[in-house]
Amino acid sequence: MLSSIWKPSEQLRGTESRALIYFVCGNPGLIGFYVDFLDALRNLLDTSQSATAYDIYGRNLLGFCDHEHEPFTPDNPPWDVDGQVDAIYQDVASRRVRIEDGSGSGSGNDGPYDFIILMGHSIGAYIAVEIFHRHMQDPGRAPHLRLRHGFLLFPTIASLALSQSGTRMNYMRSLPTMEAHFVTYAKALLSLFPRGTLHWIIQNVMGFSPRAADVTAEWLKSRDGVLQALHMGKSELDTIFEDKWDDELWEVSASAAELPAPRFFMFYGREDHWVANHVRDEFIERRRRAGEKGGRTSITVDEGNIQHAFCTKERK
């Protein structure tokens, strides 16, 4: 199973700075779902004219790939949302770029990026925003880290339980024995199907791309992947309530000379089963009102039909 994706910029001549785009997965937290998307992003950056060289990096969330952790036990439980935020924050802060010494020998030292852009999908958007928040609250934790922008795709950052899928999950949790034994039931059902059969069903019935079907089938047949996803899902429902962040996080103060670029760029689906429309619209209205005082968050709502799980479909 793929653990990470690393796509460094090859256009370094004439650039004035080096930046990292760090991608944070949704749930299930497998970077393999995003290969085509990050390939397209790499191609887009390579054909753009910019004074900044952008590297791209993304990795699995913790607990979703068996070979990356010890088997889960009562003393070694799956990761919850807070644990994922802390782990990804540490990983973002650890990223370094090779700084050449000018001798042409390839020697040099590792140094921090000039700045970092966090890009998150679904719960990955929440993780990205919370990393910004924690870094603003305690910049001394990683004083070298310069977080510049957040690109939030189909962000599940407020009142998750009010969404269509959140309501269904909470209903399932309320059924007798489900809270304690849902993973056991799920694994018993999955054990009836060989991996190849699961792949066929996921691709031909659910309409996933061949790559996404392969990633999904491997995850469903893994030792701990389903447990981690369900534990994470319950943690999301128990963690993500109303927007808890202050306006200071979302907006950048306007200067007298010019309006600065937004700190966050958000892309919502027109109809998203993980984001209730009224929650999305209320959030947008709050940001609109607050943005009148300074540089506002940039928010776009899809006018077409891009699905929340866009990364599972064929790239057109």
TrEMBL record:
Q: Which InterPro entries match?
A: AB_hydrolase_fold, LDAH
Q: Which UniProt keywords apply?
A: Hydrolase, Lipid droplet
GO biological process, alphabetically ordered: lipid storage
The answer, when asked if Flavoprotein is one of the entry's keywords, is: no
Q: Which GO terms describe its molecular function?
A: lipase activity
Q: Which domain of life is it from?
A: Eukaryota
Keyword Hydrolase on entry: yes
GO CC annotation, single: lipid droplet
The record's subcellular locations are:
Lipid droplet
What protein family is recorded?
Belongs to the AB hydrolase superfamily. LDAH family.
Q: What is this protein called?
A: Lipid droplet-associated hydrolase
| Species name | Metarhizium acridum (strain CQMa 102)
**What is the phylogenetic placement of the source species in the record?**
Eukaryota, Fungi, Dikarya, Ascomycota, Pezizomycotina
